[in-house]
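Justification of resources, computational component.

The compute hours requested in this renewal are based largely on the per-chain cost of generating structure records like the one below. Each record pairs the submitted sequence with a full structure-token output. That output is archived, and it is also reused by downstream analysis tasks.
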Amino acid sequence: MAATLIGCLPDSILVEVFGFLSVPDLVRSGRVCKHWKRLVLDKALWRKVDLTAHRINSKILWHLVRRYLGGSLRTLKVKGLLHSARKIEFLSQALLQELEKRSPNLLKLCLSETDLRRLKFDCLPSSVKSLELSHCEIPSLWFQGSGLKDGAKRQVKVEHLVLSHVPAFSNIHLKTLCCNLNLKSLSLTGTYRVTDSGFEKAAAHLKNVQHLRLQGCNITDGALDIIGRNLKALRTLELVNFRSLTDSGLQNLKSLKDLHGLGLEWCMGLSSDAIIHVCSTLHNLRSLNLNGIVFEDQGIHRILQSLPNCAVTNKMLDLD
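The structure output for this chain reads:
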């Protein structure tokens, strides 16, 4: 009865309902009736696909790519088998080429727990502009060279890169990716092999970066000196749990005149006087994140009074 009633709804409403279902539920819904099956097979429905709740093998992914995913796909999130008992990888150059062929409008690709050591960076679909890697393994020099069998060079269009707990990522990776990509945003979390030296060598190629987030990098005040001198296009800068950051290092940010958002979350070595002094010179600053920092002598109140046009937060939240 329920299927009959729901089947009477217009297709446009059913498509909206299907949009809230997980992929397994969406596939199962095609068994309800022929009408639903027709809608599920409509590739226009598959715009944002999140498979991270399940470990996907190559057989399943091949099936999805060939049967369901099409030109409407914009976002794809998948989890590999890196941390499972079976470490057989599900990605291959052939599968990625098939994905690119069938989904030429894919803009965002998110890979977690994936072993990429047998694949080159330019094997990824050329349409992807936003790439997120979480708990993945990559080879040395991953961001340079061609992995294509015919040796052909491909233009990679990634503009937004997020790396979270990719243990192999180092200064060499940072330099090579910056030389080969025109990045607009970069987020590095848990990349402890990245040091001040890495930023110094990559700085010349980061001039167009507008959004930068750093957490868990092995950097000091020296990195902020490099950022302040070279990354003039920055609109937002997030520094999370940067315990070695001092008042002296913070002074290097005064040159970032176009900065709209500044995050200093859990940067415990900063004084309220230094924050006021630096942020007062950033006339375009509209948001300041000071979560996790404990100020003495009414320091947070003086910051609020000194920055009337800036939204300041100072919550004691748990650090992930």
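The chain is about 30% helix and 15% strand. Residues 1-21, 29-33 have pLDDT under 50 and may be disordered.
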